[in-house]
Amino acid sequence: MIAKSLEKKKVLLILDDEGNKMKEGQIMTELETLLNLPNVSSYKVLITNTNAPTGSKDEILVKPLSVEESLSLFRDRVGRRVYEDPVIKDLAEKFIKETEYFPAAIMLMAKAFSYFVQCDSGTHMLESALKEAFESDSKNYNLAWLLHSGYDMLPRSVLIDYCRHGSRFFRNRGSIHYSELIAYWILEGYLGHVDCMEKAYEKGHAVFMELVDCQLLKKLDSGYVVMDSDRAIVNLDDFDHCGFGGTTSLGLADLLEDCEGTTSLGLAYLFEDGEWEGFGRISQADGMIKSVCSTKMGQKLSTLFLNGNRCLEILDSFSGLEELQVLALFNPTAKSLTQLLSKMSQLIVLVLRGCDFLVEMDHKFELTRLTVLEISNASSLKAIPDDCFPHMLQLQSLHISELKADPLPSSLYNLKELRQLILRGCSCFKIIDSMKNFKNLMVLDVSGATSLTKFIDKTFQHTPKLGHLIFHIPLLPGYQNLKILDSLLISHFVAVNS
């Protein structure tokens, strides 16, 4: 249809940043097929790229700013009053080279400097901190360090997620609506505990605006955004080097102490695999977050987030839940999971977060499409039936925390598609049975499983993809000879002789 509309017309096509993703020849070949370029009257294609090899006759080199232009931009962004502070001016002139004179990096630097000077003794703190970083290790003297040290408007987990695997979430769609990005942050737990949906959404919107202001996200028309993939702004390696800690490439929460316990579902991987089209156009009103989709039967709910003691009552009031794909209940007070869930045959993501009052799971749920399941803070739940998981054979991410059950349900070990298994804070179970079916498992988190004393598979030979094993057990004999130890991240593990 696009190709038809372009016939006999003159076309200028601008592909911003596509040169970083594909070679020029590949791009042109695909465009000729997609747009039927031979039938276009005349056309020019402008492909932008950073750090591209030079020498092509059709190449136009755009140089970074000069030092003078960079300092002028910095002054405009922080304001003349701030810039005229002798300390700030001196520090800016020394630090500006770390931006490599890229405008976006300079604006991010100005943003961080502005934050420092708003604090009590901020100028002195910035001067001392930068001097200490520069003297101790010049590699630390960069933008990532500046963000880490002083700019805390952005939750650390959002920054890490952005740098680590944000492109997985955007996937091949190129752009998404900002409301969907906020819903993603809420569901992954990046914005902290949710006790009010309106406040959580407002916090997410504030973070979104900060990312835009820092040039890490770019606004498009109609509320859509794209990632700025220019690694000259903030380098991923700098985050690890400067003490941000490390999230796994699965969207897991930070594994180091400072971010420990953050919820994470690995939703970005669902986007990458094409298993799920996303939340849809999100709206926030009346204490809930929701989106609708078009079906043959009309408009149906596809995403629903609810919070508080009326979760299930509100849920029960909705009609047409058969098409619901994403359901998240925060802080529900129900003692039992409602049979209503059994009607939701299209569910892909089910999050039950803050289930302090849940005491029983007395229904079987034939959720055959379910890919992500979280039942967290289930501190009153003493048992999960053995037949809980037989119909959830597509499950890739299972997150259960604070469960008091022992043993774990036997059907759990038949989940062949499982990529990450989070059993954080489950303090009663003693054994993890054979994981021979977990050939796709990449992450196993049993931190806080204080009664765990035995893995049936001591060498983890059945889990060749396992990249991260996380536990905080002081004594766990017999595991000092793990053959795949080099590919594991073991936190607070002390091995002793068996």
Automatic annotation (TrEMBL):
Origin: domain of life: Eukaryota
UniProt name for this protein: Disease resistance protein
